[in-house]
Amino acid sequence: MSETCELHPPAGTWTLRTFVFAILIPVVLSIAFYVSTFRNGYTYDDKFVLFESKGTRNWGNLKHFFTTDYYDLFSEQTYRPAVSLTYMFDYSLAGLNRPYVYHVTNVILHAIAVALVGSFAYGLIRNAIAAFLAALVFGLHPIQSEVVNSLSFREDILCAIFLTGMLLFYSEAIRRKMDNRFYALALGCAALAMLSKEIAVMAAIAIVAYEQFFAEGRISQKLARRWLYVLGVAVICGLILVFAFIVISNPVPRVQERSRLPYGWQLFNLPVVILQSFFVVLFPVHMSSTYSLTFLPHLPDAISVGNMVLFGLGCALIISWLVSIWLVRRRRGIAFGMLWVVLFLIPVSNILGFIINTNSARVDRFLYVPMIGIALAVASVSNSLKHSHSMRGLRASLWIVLCLVVVCWGIRIQARNADWHNDYSLFSAAVKVTPGSQILHNDLSQEYAKRGEHHKEIVELRKSIALGKTPEALTNLGSALARMGNHDGAKKSLRMALELDDRYVQALTNMGMVYQREADLLRGKAKSLRSEDRGDEANGFDTSADELYEEALAVWEQAIDAKPGFTDARFNIGNLLFKLGKTKKARDVFEDVLKIEPESARSHLQLGLILISQKEAQRGCEHILRARQLARNDRVRDIAAASLKKHCSRQPDLQHLGVH
């Protein structure tokens, strides 16, 4: 495809001085501001995306990128193979024991995105100061800190990189009178953006917006000459969308959000979301990993004065924003940047629910790609001010203000980097910003559970449930009460969870654990009574214990019926059978578990102990050794090490296993 067409504004002449000022300085500052993330571990969804992903551990799994196996192997709910490929690269370098490698990759990718935004701004505006400001705003605004810190949000960085790359190559193709080589590169970037995150479906509309603001003539004339090129981008994005959501759609239904508004209220909620996003960009002070939806839970609340005011302000902001785009249409960079923000907020604002179906009132990471538009608009405004006679005397003052803003942003980013150090610091900081979030109180409770602070755990769970009953929070409360010895309270809470969802497997599993603990206590009493020669009473306790054990097994079977691939219930069944001396049945159960989850360290450990008890020492020690290799927590690793020392170290025929 080649044709004669008008030239867009020339790309501008790059000099070493321009490159250092407009690109290198913002890139270096972006890296410097995020170096402290290298000390952070895995947080938020990182453990699910990385630890549960079996596909990233073997390059041979690349073939599964084109099958429905992709979702299970790579722990993804949507089709994002470009992101999975970067995780495979990180894993090949560091495994899972060195999280700093993953954080280094995130920071490098963010720096690349900063460089591309600065380059694109320079190509549009042809002014080094404007390009410098665009790169600086995009790279150093604190709103970007969530995406840079969270390894599981890498798709936003990649999508930004490829979308900006698409526009750079497309503009260069037009400058060279539709050079097919650069157009092919633009198509490739559009495809990679779609393979990173679904919001790239807006790429073709972004191309149309680019044509509208940066080509001479009417839009109808421009599209008449280049409609085929725009169509090419739309077709590429559409084909990937169809392939991902229809041809190899995720066979497992997407995880339901923990507290969901009806679809109509989501649309009502949209102006409020955009209003909140606008304020957090202007004043990035109160930032959180999750924001509350409590302002629109029910109709009576929704029509309250406060919510109607928020809704009205949000609508006014949207209308004002769209009118402003029209009014400043001759200020091409400003108008294009403002329109870009709208385009890439739409898919994450519950309008296109088939693309992204989210329940969060506002999540900072959703602003990463829209920030490209804000950066371009700021750059264009600065370029306009450069030609203003009234501003010439204020240039020194403006540079001082810019330096102060950058310092404030840097301080805020360092605080956010510290918040993302681990899950406890993240949720502790977030719940202070959003005390009305049911989700955050529940998440913080689980961090208290890991720290053994069970009283604080229960307090947070009760706060979570007070804000809205969910099966997850009620199940966690049941588990916490059981650990504190309050079995009646635990069962009550778990029954409430099952009333909300009778197939909630975690509630069923935990109910079985409560039955087992009660049975264990009865067995302990029976043993004590026998030591006092009170055999008849002891038999009664044993009978009650056996009944509770049967109830536990029955509940776990219910969990398996509800979710056949759920291994926790199977593991518990095997564990109880082994405990009751039914080693043959227990062995069969653990072998089934390992067929479903071959890298389950605890299942390898238990199966190894069973095999040793059945006089199959070599196979048993192989499984225990495998458990020690796979263990991700100290408890399993220590038990495996002790078992190897006890059962395997003195056996000459097992020395080839490396057991010492």
The amount of helix comes to 55-70%
Provide a count of the helices. 29
Overall pLDDT: 84
The main sheet comes to: none
Describe the structure.
- The protein is mainly α.
- The chain folds into 2 domains: about 15-420, no CATH class; about 565-660, Tetratricopeptide repeat domain (Serine Threonine Protein Phosphatase 5, Tetratricopeptide repeat, Alpha Horseshoe), CATH 1.25.40.10.
- Helix content is about 70%, strand content about 0%.
- It contains 29 helices and no strands.
- Helix 14 packs across helix 15 and helix 15 runs antiparallel to helix 16.
- The longest helix has 29 residues, at about 220-245.
- The N and C termini lie far apart (about 70 Å).
List the helices and strands and how they pair.
Layout: H1 16-34, H2 46-51, H3 69-73, H4 81-94, H5 99-125, H6 128-140, H7 145-149, H8 154-175, H9 180-194, H10 203-214, H11 219-247, H12 263-282, H13 299-302, H14 305-327, H15 332-345, H16 370-386, H17 395-419, H18 423-433, H19 438-450, H20 454-467, H21 471-483, H22 487-500, H23 505-531, H24 535-562, H25 567-579, H26 583-596, H27 601-613, H28 617-630, H29 634-647
Summarize the model shown:
This protein is an all-alpha fold.
